[in-house]
Amino acid sequence: MAKAIRIHKPGGPEAMVHEDVAMKPPGPGEAYIRQTAIGVNFIDIYQRSGIYQLPSLPHGIGMEAAGVVESVGPGVTEVKAGDRVAYAGGPPGAYAEKRMIPAATLVKLPKAIDDKTAACIMLQGMTARYLLKETYQVKKGDYVLVHAAAGGMGLILCQWAKALGAIVIGTTSTEEKAKLAAKNGCKFPILYTSEDFVARVKEITGGKGVQVVYDGVGKDTFLKSLECLASRGHLVLFGAASGAPDPISPSALQPKSASLTRPTLFHYVATRKDLLANAKDVFEVVSDGTVKIQKPKEYALKDVAKAHQDLNGRKTTGSIILIP
């Protein structure tokens, strides 16, 4: 038996139940891992609330963790017992002391990356990597707008975009968060609670707008993000922390010949080769200090409801992890 968080029916934070779950030996292609640190992300809230439907109920939630392989099933060659590993993706169920997972989703951790850092960077780091290098290839001199610039995802995006030569503009809700963003690659932090971020973006860019907007907020920022684009700019909607945006007509993109995309990480790491290449890039920029990871806020696994309340209430900066 192992303790895990499971959902018996969608709902608020109270829907998460801390309970014993029976474990079985790993089957073909599976690895049994003892988890040491678990990442908390907005996708977990979508799973808990029913926005993203779970395969069945009751079911675990969570998509990211680090730990140690305890045993593997027949045919597994990717990892072995004793390996330190991390993952982002696969079937939901990361909120657990131990779990079974397809071995092909696991990545071995280098010595330079500790478990708590790994639990912060697998989903967010690999997302930042494909956003900056594949969905839109950020170039030197590009103006980039990052929403929620002081969150875990935002801090990685700001630092990495700056390292690629971009001029980073970021929106935040408080002076404290603005200062944090500024220390992490955001040249122009904007307090959206007291400033019109569209007007400020136009001022910063001399009226031209930005080459790309990275918007993980959704409904509250989506239409204004379109206004911030330069001619032939790209709006990359990669999340919806404030809710799904209202539908728009394709003709809304015509005035600027703008591009709109709604990517997801799992299409960029669908093959083992792509997964390893993506993770390698993330480990390198973290190991060499290009991207510095703020110490995450820690919660005990049993206190997951509080973690969700704080994340959804935008009471945190940087990343959140659960400790089993």
Task: Please specify the SSE layout and strand pairing.
Elements: E1 2-7, E2 16-21, E3 30-40, H1 42-49, E4 59-60, E5 64-72, E6 84-88, E7 98-102, E8 107-108, H2 115-135, E9 143-146, H3 152-163, E10 167-172, H4 175-182, E11 188-191, H5 197-204, E12 210-215, H6 222-227, E13 229-237, E14 259-261, H7 265-268, H8 272-287, E15 297-300, H9 304-312, E16 320-323
Parallel strand pairs: 9-10, 9-12, 10-11, 12-13, 13-14, 15-16
Antiparallel strand pairs: 1-2, 1-4, 3-5, 3-7, 3-16, 5-6, 6-8
Helix pairs in contact: 2-3, 2-8
Can you tell me about this structure?
The protein has 324 residues and is of the alpha/beta class. The chain has two domains: 172 residues, Medium-chain alcohol dehydrogenases, catalytic domain (Quinone Oxidoreductase, Chain A, domain 1), CATH 3.90.180; 123 residues, Rossmann fold (3-Layer(aba) Sandwich). 28% of the residues lie in helices and 27% in strands. The protein has nine helices and 16 strands. α2 packs across α3 and α2 packs across α8. The protein is globular and about 60 Å long. It starts with a strand and ends with a strand.
